[in-house]
Amino acid sequence: MIQSVLRASLASAATLMLTACSAATNVEEQQPSQAEFSAEDKRVAQALSIGRNVERADATPQYEAMLCNLALEAIGERLENTDLLTSEQIEVFEKAKAIYQNRAGVGLTTEEREKTRSDVEAAYPETKDRARFAMGCLRDLV
């Protein structure tokens, strides 16, 4: 039972990731022309967003790339151990992880890279906290 629930959840996540990678739509077409949102509405929406951006104002590109790398690792382990992805999708997913892994180390020494990883892990200690960034990271590659 747990396994079937997990498979259904992963299938939903994979569908959402694939949808996020499909052709982009015009944001203006999705929003009502008269809609106005308060700062609090925007803050709550940002907090609930699955593919939201990094919360730290001082985040470097390497920090953001490391977060994406760890986010993709977080969901990749679960997706790759199922039959939900084709071998081609797994290959593309691995390439995406490699892109972010390379970006995370650009211009950094080994010690700086390890510190960046430690900082990200400390800021997002739970796998689920990291995983919610994965779709945004994949979307950014498109």
Layout of helices and strands:
Elements: H1 2-20, H2 27-30, H3 39-48, H4 61-80, H5 87-104, H6 110-123, H7 127-131, H8 134-141
Helix pairs in contact: 4-5, 4-6
Structure notes:
The chain is mostly helical. 69% of the residues lie in helices and 0% in strands. The chain is built from eight helices and no strands. The protein has helices at 2-20, 27-30, 39-48, 61-80, 87-104, 110-123, 127-131, 134-141. Helix 4 (61-80) packs antiparallel against helix 5 (87-104) and helix 4 (61-80) crosses helix 6. The longest helix has 20 residues, at 61-80. The chain is globular. The protein starts with a helix and ends with a helix.
Write out key terms for the chains shown.
single chain, 142 residues, mainly alpha, 69% helix, disordered N terminus
List segments where confidence is low: pLDDT < 50 over at least 5 consecutive residues.
Answer: 1-11, 18-25
How many angstroms does the end-to-end distance come to?
Answer: 36 Å
What's the total count of β strands? 0
Mean pLDDT: 75
Could you state the oligomeric state of the chains shown? single chain
H/E element order = HHHHHHHH
- Taking all Cα atoms into account, the compactness measure Rg is 17 Å
Main sheet specs: none
Percentage of β-strand residues: under 5%
- Give the % helix: 55-70%
